[in-house]
Amino acid sequence: MVAIIDYDAGNIKSVEKAIQFLGQEAVITRNPEEILNASHVILPGVGAFGDAMEKLQKYNLVPVIHEVIRRKIPFIGICLGLQLLFESSEETPGVEGLGILKGVIRRIPDKDELKIPHIGWNSLKYPNKGRLYNGISEDSYVYFVHSYYLDAEEDDIVVATTEYGTLIHASVEKGNVFACQFHPEKSSSVGLKILENFLKISKEDE
Questions:
Q1: Structural domain that includes position 98
Q2: Known active-site residue 34
């Protein structure tokens, strides 16, 4: 069973549908027992960094997420879910993220020809080999919706990048922790393959 963490963030239903399409049972939950007994855990999200951290704390999900990581249960953050894994965001100065990975979330720089938020399809480059991208060729396109982007401190965890006014760390992997700034659940067959690759990873692989 795949647990999708429910903290009132947007886009949860489309993640559930994608998991079900891949033939897996999915449950949207904030119940610690359900989350910790899941085979895989997903932290989705569309929204603001500060509000999201407030909700995670309100529902007492911060220690649960840390326990998921400690138990080596395969875990993936999507969009805002990626951003929350890091230490801080320029969107809400002074608010600490989960701090599971090292890095800062920065605002996409203003440039005349670029619209912010960045909404649309961009291609990926692979600076490091990532398990999420097995069978997916470099320069494949995925779907982004964001105004802020990851600047990871550790280059070796960055497995996919894209360019939009600056170099964006689009996906990271470290141990049982995976994350995508883009939306695999909205990225057609490429996105479904990424999610399928995630679901093939087991606790025993870590």
A1: 2-205
A2: no
